[in-house]
Amino acid sequence: MIFDCKLCGQCCKGEGGIFLVQGEGERISSFLGIPKDEFILQCCELRNGRTYIKTSPDGACLFYDPEKSCTIHPVKPVRCELWPFFPANLKDPDTFEAAKEACPGIRPDCSHDEFLREWERICLKK
C-alpha cells in the first residue's frame, strides 16, 4: 500500500487551498444544515474565479479540528479525496518527495514511478 491516511491533518494545511467543484457547495451546506448562500458567505471565498473553503488563522482548512480531524469528512470536497494524488505530486518527482516528507501516510520508500502506477491502477478501477 502506497498511502494509508493517518488523519494527521497535514494535508488540511498550507497554501493553495481547497476549491469546490459543481455540487460540492450544496452537499456541504446540506450536511451542515445551513442554506448554500450562508455557507458560501461564511465559509468560502472567491479567488481566481473559483470558490475556496476559507482557512483559519493557522492556515488550516476551516473544517479541520485538531481533535476531531475533518468535520465534514463524509462530504469532503473531491480535492480532498484526491490526496496525495494531486496533479503537482503526479507531475513532479521533487514535489512528490516534499509531499512524502510532510505526509506520514505516504509510504516513505515509495518511488515516484510506483506512485504513478498506483494512480493509474486507481483510475482504471473507476
If you had to describe this structure to a student in words, what would you say it looks like?
- The chain has one domain.
- The chain has helices at residues 24-32, 36-43, 78-82, 87-91, 93-102, 112-125; strands at residues 44-47, 50-53, 64-65, 69-70.
- The protein starts with 23 loop residues before the first helix and ends with a helix.
- The protein has 126 residues and is mostly helical.
- A two-stranded antiparallel ribbon has the order 1-2. A two-stranded antiparallel sheet has the order 3-4.
- The radius of gyration is 15 Å and the shape is globular.
What does the largest sheet look like? Answer: 2 strands, antiparallel
Structural class: mainly alpha
What's the total count of β strands? 4
SSE string, helices as H and strands as E: HHEEEEHHHH
Q: Number of helical segments? A: 6
- Average predicted local confidence, pLDDT: 92
Distance between the termini: 18 Å
Strand content: 5-15%
Radius of gyration: 15 Å
Uncertain residue segments: none
Strand order of the largest sheet: 1-2
List keywords for this structure.
126 residues, mainly alpha, two-stranded antiparallel ribbon, two-stranded antiparallel sheet, 4 strands, 40% helix, globular
